[in-house]
Amino acid sequence: MKHIFLVEDDSAIAKNLSLLLRAEGFSVTHASTRSEAVELLFSHRFDLALVDISLPDGNGFAVCTEIKTQQEIPVIFLTASGDESSVVTGLNMGADDYVTKPFRPRELVARIRAALRKSGSAPAIFALGGLSVDTASGIVKKNGGEVFLSALEYRLLLVFVSNPKNILTRDRLLNELWDAAGEFVTNNTLTVYIKRLREKIEDNPADPRIILTVRGTGYRLGEGMSDVSE
To answer: Whole-prediction pTM value?
Structure first.
C-alpha cells in the first residue's frame, strides 16, 4: 500500500481527499500546517506528497523544498487558483505535477498513479503462502486461482501487506478500515472481517499462517512475504 502525505489546511477538503485515497487503496497521513508537515517528515516515510500551495503558517513551496531535501518522492501541488506564476514556481522547485481546485477525484487519482509509475514507485505484486496480491490490478490469487474479496476485505489485506513486520493493533486496524467501504467498523465487525478474510485466503482458517493473532495485542502478517513484481 502506497503512503500518501497530504498537506492541506482545509479540513473539509482534507477529509474528503483522505476518504477518496483510502478507498483507492492508499494509506494517508495528513498535516494541516507547514510546521506539522516538517515534523511528520522526520517520523514517516512516504511514497508521494499532495501539497496545498496556501498554508496558514507559510506556503507549499517551502514544504516542497523540505520534502525534496529529506525524501526522494513525487510532489503534486494543489492550488485553488490558475495562477500561472505559482504553477511555474512549483514546477521549477521540483514539483512533479499540479492540480487546480476544484478537481475531479478520478483525475487526481490518475495523476497520483502516473507520478508513482514515473518515480519507480509503481504498485507491486506480493506473495506469501500461495497467496499473491497485485496492488496495481487489485487481483488476489490463492494457489493460482482468483480470490474475490469485498472492498473492505481487500482493504484489510492491504493493511497487512503494507506492514509485513509490524504488529497491528485492533485500534490501528479500525482506524484504517472505518471508511473503506462507507461502513462503520466496530471491534465486533472487525473480528468478523478477519474471520471472513481467513476463510478466503488461508489453507486452514482454523490454523492460520498468513494472518496471525497476537494475543492481547492484535494481528500480524506471517513470515516470508516477498515482492515478486518484475
So the answer is: 0.56
3-118 classified as CATH 3.30.365.10: no
Distance CA(186)–CA(109), nearest Å, equals 28
What spatial distance separates the first Cα and last Cα of the chain, rounded to whole Å? Answer: 17
Q: Residues 103-160: pLDDT tens digits?
A: 788 788 888 888 887 776 555 678 888 999 887 677 899 998 999 998 788 888 988 8
In the chain, domain spans: 3-118, 125-227
Residues 6+ apart with CB under 8 A from 134: 123, 125, 140, 141
Question: For cell 500551495, what's the residue?
Answer: 53
Residue 3 phi/psi, 5-degree rounding, is: -100, 115
Instruction: Compute and round to an integer the Cα radius of gyration of the chain.
Output: 19
State the CB neighbour count (10 A cutoff) for residue 128: 21
> Residue 115's CB: how many other CB atoms inside 10 A?
21
CATH says 125-227 is which class? mainly alpha
Question: Distance between CA 163 and CA 74 in Å, rounded?
Answer: 22
